TrEMBL record:
Family in the record: Belongs to the peptidase C19 family.
Source lineage: Eukaryota, Viridiplantae, Streptophyta, Embryophyta, Tracheophyta
Name the record gives this protein: Ubiquitin carboxyl-terminal hydrolase
The enzyme's E.C. designation: 3.4.19.12
Residue ranges, compositional bias (Polar residues): 689-708, 716-728
The organism's place on the tree of life at top rank: Eukaryota
Catalyzed chemical reaction(s): Thiol-dependent hydrolysis of ester, thioester, amide, peptide and isopeptide bonds formed by the C-terminal Gly of ubiquitin (a 76-residue protein attached to proteins as an intracellular targeting signal)
Catalytic class of the enzyme: hydrolase
Pfam families: DUSP, Ubiquitin_UBP8, UCH
Organism of derivation: Rhododendron simsii
InterPro entries assigned to the protein according to its UniProt record, in alphabetical order: DUSP-like_sf (IPR035927), Papain-like_cys_pep_sf (IPR038765), Pept_C19_DUSP (IPR006615), Peptidase_C19_UCH (IPR001394), Ub_carboxyl-term_hydrolase (IPR050185), Ubiquitin_UBP8/5 (IPR057372), USP (IPR028889), USP_CS (IPR018200)
Keyword 4Fe-4S: no
Swiss-Prot/TrEMBL keywords: Hydrolase, Protease, Thiol protease, Ubl conjugation pathway
Region: Disordered, residue numbers: 681-728
Length: 976
């Protein structure tokens, strides 16, 4: 990695005069102060002046030093003494205190240990090695040599981390600090020894040769140095004056150090051939090691492949961009004489221009789509639509076609896609600069832009789509497709566009609207599992049963209606009952989950849910919420007070607004709600969280009779039997308090005949019951206290979550019926209102090339997240026959994978590569920017897979999916 330096520092005359006055004042203070150490002000001014002078005269070969950002920040605070922080360019608010006002502690010795690996030492071949993911300005800063010398003289410490200034950029005139020199893996053959070294990319092959001989203690005349990219002999490095940069050697690359016996005539002849040609022929070059996955270089920085990046794990690695925006990283242009890696057409890499791996991976997948490879290598200019206002005046198509031809030309060095990127930035400013972007977003723009540039329709007719109105789907689908083709006809439509059936149902009037819309790719959601286990406690309001916790299984991406239905089945809900679902927080009802369309994903595993059985056909009601409180002692300021605090789980019961409600009515209602918990004798408490145990008791018959006996016993003293009839005279008064509309508490234990005024603005009536110790002796409130969590993690669940996710499962989730989001509501033509309709998608017509985007990235207002879920996608025989809604199409819909993009790492700091199958070779390759290496088919699948490219398998009964025979049905790669 390199860090770019400015070439000059012009400063205003006024600021220079101010600094001169500052220097004079500081020097005067220095003479006054008797301290043996320089004052903070003296240090500040001296470092500033030295740094300005040093950086203004920076030249190639100069030395800069890394210093930990942590220590540098401590020093800045020390020298500024709570003033504005200065920077090396001198920009600060300069106001110094006298030497006697220093109050911050002087920093201790410089400690750079957090920047390095502890295992390395200066004597090792690799030297003191930096951590691979350091970021300038966050982990370290770079200091000119004079600045480091001054700080080191004052503070001491270390270790010293020196780095050289090199020329970089396209013109090789841009100064940059090479923070991360090349780390190369040396393999000595045939002895089998290995060693790692650090060496500048600007060093020569001769220097690499010398150091390899020194490390392995070899005679230079007996050693050949090979470019061992992908652990294959690709090129003999015999030009001792060429730099490693010119030889296209990159981070963590393998170098073969081969011992040669010149007395062997056969071997000598082979070496002579190599010397003449500069590379070894495949048939004369032996492969000493099986090919392996190559490490990929991120913007000229560290390697992040498995086993190479020391602080990255194989599942999720956080990669840092090591390129400064606005410049091109090293190796951004082709250099004559660089050995071509591989001789087959189509095996040409793309140089990374600085975080352009997202673009390179998408381009490689497109240029290796057989239909596009043939189309753009022939004369496509006659189809360019120069007048299309939706296109790019043909410029994007021309730039892409030219790039494709370069990538398919034989004997090419890696291509720098600068002209194409310039066109891309012109028409899509969101992709300008050198920041990391989403490969799929680029792909979507590129396909759409190429379509408009190559649209064969020069004058688009006006087309008005008709509603289905009960017509056969086949007729309506063909009509929609014909309308689409009349306005959109290009190679992109021929190859990549399909059609799906979209069905909308109005939730109010049940109006059904069916349309048939085109698609360019499918974006499939990822779910770690398709179902979710949830625990909910069910309460009754009529006193018929104790609370009961049940565990149910629901769709993970389901809605509250799915949850309510599952609970209804589990608790055997009667036809005249319904469930009122509520979320409980801090012993209060946080919210009622009344909207059936609420996403279950909004309910977290550590939430607590309660479901209340209430009558189904009661109208004009409000809900009484019985909030439980008990005495708790609070201690503050050495004083102890007793207060009533909420506890347990609220109970809910409906109240009719059509009748007059008295305080006595509420007393009776609460008695009924609490009646199952009346104590009879001391019995063990079953655990409410044990979903396999019914809570009333181990013997349901005993519980029922006991509860009935409790209720009879409780009221027998207040019941008069007169002529065989019974009449309730009075009930024990419960300590209830009603919260009125003014938030005042009304005692309900007195004035039982007084009417209660119900609030007209609220659907809830809050009633507190204060549980004293005496009252708790009569009721067993245990059943209210232990509300289980929605879900509790366990080892079984953890095992289940690691199961691979099938691509078919993702497709089924995409095709599942679900309501539209509120921001995208549908205008119902029958209601004349915007409605949150339910939407169902079905595949109707499939394209020749099916592009599938796995939605690994999720965005919200507060966070960004990437899913590392492994998706088990088929490479061969991806069968979509059963997913086609057009049942008149009897042919099998089989697809085969031929390309995919991968994303490694986290959000905004990862790396893209592509896996591509050359169909004429029937072999897979890894395209990692300019690096290309063969891979085994079993290595194609990984949790990094992001965008999949499938191609239709030609069968005898295959019918044309897009309504017109394509001229590019079957393409055999030709070598030109």
């Amino acid at each position: 990695m390199v860090r770019t330096l400015p070439t000059s520092f012009p400063f205003e005359i006024l600021r220079e005069r101010e600094r001169e006055r500052e220097r004079e004042r500081v020097m005067a203070e220095t003479a006054v102060c008797s301290s043996s150490e320089p004052t903070p002000d003296v240090e500040k001014v001296m470092i500033r002046d030295i740094s300005l002078a040093a950086e203004a005269q920076t030249r190639e070969g100069d030395t800069f030093y890394l210093i930990t950002q942590r220590w540098w920040q401590d020093w800045l605070e020390y020298v500024n003494q709570n003033q504005a922080t200065i920077t090396l360019d001198g920009s600060s608010s300069d106001r110094s205190d006298s030497c006697g006002l220093t109050n911050l502690k002087r920093p201790s010795a410089i400690d750079n240990s957090d920047l390095i690996y502890e295992a390395e030492s200066e004597d090792s071949p690799i030297g003191i090695d930096l951590h691979d993911t350091l970021v300038e300005g966050t982990d370290y800063i770079l200091l000119p040599q004079e600045v480091w010398n001054r700080l080191y003289a004052w503070y001491g410490g270390g270790p010293t981390l020196a780095r050289k200034v090199i020329n970089s950029g396209v013109s090789q005139t841009e100064l940059a600090v090479e923070v991360y020199p090349l780390r190369l893996q040396l393999h000595l053959m045939p002895k089998g020894d290995n060693s790692s070294i650090r060496i500048s990319k600007k060093e020569t092959i001769g220097e690499l040769h010398r150091r390899a001989c020194e490390i392995f203690d070899l005679n230079s005349e007996q050693v050949w140095i090979w470019d061992y990219y992908g652990r294959r002999k690709y090129a003999l490095m015999q030009d001792m004056g060429k730099t490693l940069d010119d030889a296209n050697i990159q981070m963590d690359q393998d170098i073969l150090v081969e011992l040669v016996d010149n007395s062997n005539s056969a071997l000598g002849g082979c070496m002579s051939s190599v010397l003449e040609n500069g590379s070894a022929d495949k048939e004369t070059t032996s492969v000493l090691v099986e090919p392996s996955k190559s490490g990929f270089s991120i913007a000229g920085g560290f390697s992040a492949s498995k086993g190479l990046s020391r602080n990255c794990n194989s599942e999720s690695s956080q990669f840092q961009s090591l390129t400064s925006p606005g410049r091109e990283s090293d190796n951004t242009y082709g250099i004559s004489g660089v050995t071509t890696r591989g001789s087959s057409c189509g095996l040409t890499g793309l140089l990374n221009l600085g975080n352009t791996c997202f673009m390179n991976s998408a381009i490689q997948c497109l240029v290796h789509t057989p239909e596009f490879a043939r189309y753009f290598r022939e004369d496509y200019h006659k189809e360019i639509n120069w007048q299309n206002p939706l296109g790019m005046v043909g410029e994007l198509a021309l730039a892409f076609g030219e790039l494709l031809r370069k990538l398919w030309a034989p004997g090419r060095t890696p291509v720098a896609p600068r002209p194409f990127k310039a066109k891309l930035a012109r028409f899509a400013p969101q992709f300008s600069g050198y920041n990391q972007h989403d490969s799929q977003e680029l792909l979507a723009f590129l396909l759409d832009g190429l379509h408009e540039d190559l649209n064969r329709v020069k004058h688009k007719p006006y087309v008005k789509s008709r509603d289905a109105d009960g017509r056969p789907d086949e007729e309506v689908a063909d009509e929609y497709w014909a309308n689409h083709i009349s306005r959109n006809d290009s190679i992109i439509v021929d190859v990549c566009q399909g059609q799906y059936k979209s069905t909308l149902v109005c939730p109010t009037c049940n109006k059904i609207s069916v349309t048939f819309d085109p698609f360019m790719y499918l974006s499939l959601p990822l779910q770690s599992t398709t179902t979710r286990t949830m625990a909910v406690t069910v309460f009754t309001c009529d006193g018929s049963a104790l609370p009961n916790a049940c565990t149910i299984t629901v769709p993970k991406q389901g809605r509250c209606r799915d949850l309510i239905q599952a609970i209804s089945n589990a608790c055997s809900l009667k036809h005249n009952e319904k469930l009122l679902l509520a979320e409980i927080r801090s012993h209060l009802i946080h919210r009622f989950l009344e909207d059936p369309l609420i996403l279950l994903s909004s309910i977290k595993d550590d939430d607590h849910l309660a479901a209340y059985k209430i009558p189904k056909f009661v109208k004009n009601t409000k809900f009484l919420q019985l909030i439980h409180r008990r005495e708790e002692r609070e201690t503050s300021n050495a004083q102890s007070t007793i207060g009533w605090k909420p506890y347990g789980t609220p109970l809910v019961s409906p109240i009719s607004c059509d009748e007059v409600i008295t305080r006595g009515d509420i007393q009776s209602m609460v008695h009924t709600m609490l009646s199952p918990m009346l104590r009879t004798e001391s019995v063990g408490h079953p655990d409410i969280s044990d979903t396999n145990t019914l809570l009333p008791a181990s013997d349901p018959s005993q519980t029922t009779s006991s509860s009935a006996a409790c209720r009879d016993s409780n009221v027998e003293d207040s019941v008069q039997r007169n002529g065989g009839s019974s009449k309730t005279v009075t009930l024990p008064k419960l300590p209830l308090q009603l919260v009125d509309e003014n938030n005042a508490c009304i005692d309900l234990s007195v004035g039982e005949d007084k009417a209660v005024k119900l609030s007209s603005s609220s659907m809830s009536i809050l009633v507190f019951i204060d549980w004293s110790g005496k009252l708790l002796e009569k009721y067993d409130a245990y059943y209210l206290e232990n509300l289980p969590e929605v879900f509790k993690n366990g080892p079984v669940t953890k095992k289940a979550r690691t199961e691979p996710l099938s691509l078919y499962t993702c497709l089924e989730a995409f095709l599942r019926e679900e309501p539209l989001v509120p921001e995208d509501m549908w205008y119902c033509p029958q209601c004349k209102e915007r409605r949150q309709a339910s939407k169902k998608l079905d595949l109707w017509r499939l394209p020749e090339v099916l592009v599938i985007h796995l939605k690994r990235f999720s965005y919200s207002r507060s966070m960004k997240h990437k899913l590392e879920t492994f998706v088990n996608f088929p490479i061969h025989d991806f069968d979509l026959t059963n997913y086609i809604a057009n049942k008149n199409n009897a042919s099998r819909q089989l697809y085969e994978l031929y390309a995919l993009t991968n994303h490694y790492g986290g959000m905004g700091s990862g790396h893209y590569t592509a896996h591509i199958k050359l169909l004429d070779e029937n072999r897979w390759y890894n395209f990692d920017d300019s690096h290309i290496s063969p891979i085994n088919e079993e290595d194609v699948k990984s949790p990094a897979a992001y965008v999949l490219f499938y191609r239709r398998v030609k069968t005898e009964d295959a019918s044309v999916s897009n309504g017109a025979q394509s001229s590019v049905d079957h393409v055999i790669y030709s070598r030109k």
